[in-house]
Amino acid sequence: MGAHNTSILEALWQQLKALQEPYLHAFVYGESEHSESATNMLVVCDDEGVSYSVDSFLIGVFEWLSKVSESKSMRKLFATRAEETGATAPTPLFNQLVACLLSYAQITTEMMDDWADDMDLFVADEDEDGYRFNVRVSAQELLQALDAAFSQTLPSAMHWATQEYTKLAQRWRQQENDNWWLVSEAILWAIGTLSSSVISEQESDAPGGRLDLGVLFENNVWPLAQCATFPYGQGRSFIFASSVCQALPTSIAAAFAEASSKAVADTQLHPAVRLSAVRATGNFCRLLPSELVKSHQGTFISGLASVIPQLSEDSAHVALDALHAALRVDQDIAANMEPVISQVVIGIWQRYPGDVLLTSIVIDIVEDMARNKQACEAFAQRALPTIAATISQSSDGMVISSGIDLLSGLIKGGPSPMPNGYTDAIFPLLMQILSASIDGEVLQSGQACLKYFVQKDAERIAQWRDDKGVSGLDLIIRFIGLMLSPDSSESSALFVGDLVAKVVQKCSSFIAGDVLAELIRVVTARLATALTASFCSSLLPLYAQLIVRHPSEVIDLLDGMHFADRTGLHVVLSAWFKNYLDVQGYYSRKVSAVALTRLYALGDPRISDVVVQGDIVPNSANKGKIVTRSMSRSNPDQYTQIPAAAKIVKLLLAELEMDVEGAFARQSAAALGSAAGEDLGDDNGDGDEEEGDWEDDADYDAMDEMASAGKYAYLSDLMGDEGDFDDHDDDEDVLEDPIYSQDLNEHLGAFFSQVVCADHAKFSSTIEPTLTTKEREALHRICSR
Length: 785
Description:
two-stranded antiparallel ribbon, mainly alpha
């Protein structure tokens, strides 16, 4: 098929050009004199009266072109290279293709009719991940594919196409042809689709072919912005200006930011203009320096607050997201606007507590307001009663879970210790709900919320008592025990490992050593019967954290536990090795690797006495066959059995090799980027279509039994004040752990060099023979560096 791609492209290109004018008359310029004949040509009906249009054909062509743009053999049809300078330039075909896409990207009459009936559809069509697919969206995807394949060449092609279509829009505007705005809107829409590339190009020193934003604004943006007759075009001017605001002169960016702030609150404007201004507001607040938008922040917030209650569930996320961006501009102004923010944010959540998208944005806003030292207490005083009333009165698990997630946001973002009233107002209700619930989402949300409670206010939780004198920590430990009971589903307890780690870390000074030892025993007992990798991997970071701090003591504790015919040490090591790669998160994986080095360094014979699964043994019975389930049951895979110390070495070698390869890939990508436009690979100057001479062209290669209380009293110190395996970058416990910033590559390299040179734990005689040839080679490379 590849050999015929050029011929196919030529045929399809002729079709695209031939269909362009009829398509515009049939679907875009609805009242033109050629509309009826064009429609008859492009829309047909079968015998049953079902109509078919040319849309599906065009979408198919654009999808095919997206794939072709990735083909090495076709690149010379899109871009050429100057022999003297090595600079790339678009071919005439590329220029005309981009221009053609501007035609097909114009808003159709059907789209405007849909928007007139339902503005939610307008919002959906403007979303990056909108659910409606049409020719315009397909053209957008093709532009993005061309940008990925020809990042250096597309700007020049877009510049050429923009010039051609700007001339058309100007001519029609002078002739009072009302279709001019459709052309200008399509130009801005297409360039806005590539706004990141446009900004990068404006900031670069690349010669020629650069889009002139000044000319673009003069001929397309300003005429649309000043023309209320065409609201979808006027709205596009706001969105476009905000998407490229970083490349605009300060005066123009500030002017459009001010205009957007006024348009959001102007009830006389068309809804499409106001919604477009809402999107623009979010962009301005996110992209411009705070000094430029600070003076408009209050207007932004009040305007958005007035719009949000008027929007439906399907559209409110746009304004809510813009509000989130606006309140981040300046904390002092946000604090002054707290009554307005709290009312609209909690209000929209009350209306749609089950909407996942809206709730996620609300949680982000709640966290930010909780972090605002001037606003947090007032915001909490307004929010807590509403959240408490909602989760106590609702029987809908999704609503209760959503409310608990909001509580988590308040606590996570708030100070430590928390303000007075948090614990007394919320903790008893939360524990009451969790102790009675069997809903998996509610229980998961509750585990996360309790983790933040413990992280932020452990002392107050320990001091709190219910009417029976039971402490808050005792209630949490009982809840943990309930979640880890054999009757509890693993999916419901996915976050209990995080909670246990926080309790051990933050509350060890409030709990007796025997209670902590029992807590570890309960977790280990559940790990011994765990079935799913996701559940196992959620519990394992607890042991990694403990072993990093006090490896010898933890080994003593685990070795003293017995579950059927296995010790706790055997349970933990077996599960750890089996599910090592399933541990999720940058920080957790690093802690897990460092903990294994600590284990190996102990040289404890009890570790080596644990025999675990090693490498797979090829099954001769299945050799050369497609193995079915019945065959795998009758002839299951066999594995070597090796000491735990050897397994540690194997896992860490694999970890280091993956890290080295990742580093190498990043270095290679950086080298390719720096060489862009220099080395385009002139190995075979014959221009062979299939092999070509673009191998390194940057325009294409853009492409894991309870012990005695006296013996384990020191468990109170096992965690210290460090650690957490929550991978949120704003978790202070994570950021303060030296492991977080440690170079794992260097750490493991030093570990292996020391192990081999010192023949630690009889490495050469007991460990090295278990290594595969590939592992020995990797070890040699590491030790030779």
